[in-house]
Amino acid sequence: MSSVTVPRSAPLAPTSSDRVRQVVVVVGALLAMAGAAFGSGAFGGQQVEDAAGGALSADATPLAPDTPAFRIWSVIYLGLLAYAVYQALPRNAARPRLRATGWWVLASMVLNAAWIGVVQQGWVVGSVVVIATLLAVLAVLLVRLVRTPPDSAAQAVVTDGTIGLYLGWVSVATLANIAATLVVLDVGGLGLGATAWSVVVLTLASALAVAYAVFARTRPVIAVAIGFAMAWGLAWIAVGRTSGSPEDPVVAGAAAAASVVAIAAPVVTTLLARRSAR
């Protein structure tokens, strides 16, 4: 796998494009914060769980995470703000890793704000298009971060940690969003029923978690962050199906098993990668 390394003694000279990127990413982070506030009910907005007729609430579908799961957004937003500040530091203007990710992080923040706006308008089908695009952007960021090593531990935490949590959570949220859209469209059980389809989707989520872990095995911070965020979301699906409505012990068991896979996979793959590198 190719990688890019830049000697600390010979930093690249910042360009006008670098300076523009630094400023615009900071503005994007502030936009993301404003969108989050709007989506929590501030500035006249509805809470996301109440928007679109409650289609995305914790009891809308068997794949909806319980309400406390969404607290992870606070950590993600703080991480995005930390990334924005970090990349805006003068000494970081020309860092190859930040050049490779800055505009994509900005795109992710704009898409996240757009998703909140679309949901506020009640466009549930449109929200799937937006969140799927967001997931694709975060996947591009994953590839770029894996292929380009961090300059420092601090950069790894701010960049890999934030994007890892973001990607892991959005992966689970996309599944929940699709399930909610199918309910809104009244497609029925598609021949298997809600429980069976939920188990199929959770099995696919486990496979996706393993795929992320294998691909990011040489970057422990992002691998573990993805696994943690996915495990968090899947665990709260299990809680919701155990203690909330709709109750479904089969889905709860499948979600709990998927959560274990999501957190265990990056631990195993990164340990194996370290052992093979010796």
Automatic annotation (TrEMBL):
Q: Does the keyword Membrane apply?
A: yes
**TM regions (residue ranges):** 23-43, 70-89, 101-118, 124-143, 163-185, 191-214, 221-239, 251-273
Per the record, the major location class is: membrane
Gene Ontology cellular-component terms for this entry are:
membrane
Q: How does it sit in the membrane?
A: Multi-pass membrane protein
* A Pfam family of this chain: TspO_MBR
Q: What's in the keyword line of the UniProt record? A: Membrane, Transmembrane, Transmembrane helix
- State if Membrane is listed as a keyword: yes
Q: Which family does it belong to?
A: Belongs to the TspO/BZRP family.
* Listed name of the protein: Tryptophan-rich sensory protein
| Taxonomic source organism | Cellulomonas algicola
